[in-house]
Write a structure and sequence with these properties.
The chain has one domain. The chain is 75% helix and 0% strand. It starts with a helix and ends in a 14-residue tail after the last helix.
Length: 183
């Protein structure tokens, strides 16, 4: 194997993964049902496919920030970005386990945590701080939750399925596994 192959394959993989994330995030700019968006899937995907934790956070966050500049800034953005970070961490669990069941489980867990945390933030900002205000907030958000789950599943299928097809067709895109030093 040539030395240039060792340098170019990781770079090629990085460019392809970043491009996939960029394209998925651009889907936020297209008309879509409320909360049927790629951000949860993008965060999960980045956590699962980038070996370097810093890159796993940086690439999707930069994409998200750029798209938010077009879509607008709102008061819940710190909460949304916090949930996005949780999804990256959930994706880290999938490193080496990118099969259907664990991926589906982490996708659903990401959708649930996003629903619970962002709507709690919404309750704190926009609803009376009573039990009735809290239940009203969560009940009003249920249709959005359905769309979040469907969007997360759809975009996870596109991203993870797309990468599996690309890795199958182009072995150079596969992540290079380093030999273990443990005996």
């Amino acid at each position: 194997m040539r030395e240039t192959d060792l340098v170019s394959k990781p770079l090629l993989r990085f460019v392809v993964l970043s491009g996939m994330i960029g394209l998925a995030v651009m889907a936020r700019l297209l008309p879509h049902p409320p909360n049927f968006a790629p951000i949860g899937a993008v965060a999960l995907f980045a956590g699962a496919v980038f070996a370097d934790r810093r890159v796993a956070f940086l690439v999707p966050f930069v994409s998200l920030i750029l798209s938010d500049l077009f879509l607008g800034i709102h008061e819940l953005l710190p909460v949304v970005y916090g949930c996005f970070a949780v999804n990256v961490l959930l994706g880290r669990f999938l490193r080496g386990r990118r099969t259907v069941l664990p991926t589906a489980a982490m996708t659903l867990l990401g959708s649930v945590q996003f629903f619970l945390i962002t709507n709690f933030g919404c309750w704190l900002l926009d609803y009376p701080h009573t039990w009735e205000g809290l239940t009203t907030c969560y009940l009003a958000a249920l249709p959005f939750f359905r769309n979040s789950v469907l969007g997360d599943l759809f975009f996870v299928g596109l991203l993870f399925g797309g990468l599996a097809l690309l890795e199958w067709g182009f072995p150079a895109l596969r992540e290079r596994v380093r030999p273990s030093t443990a005996v």
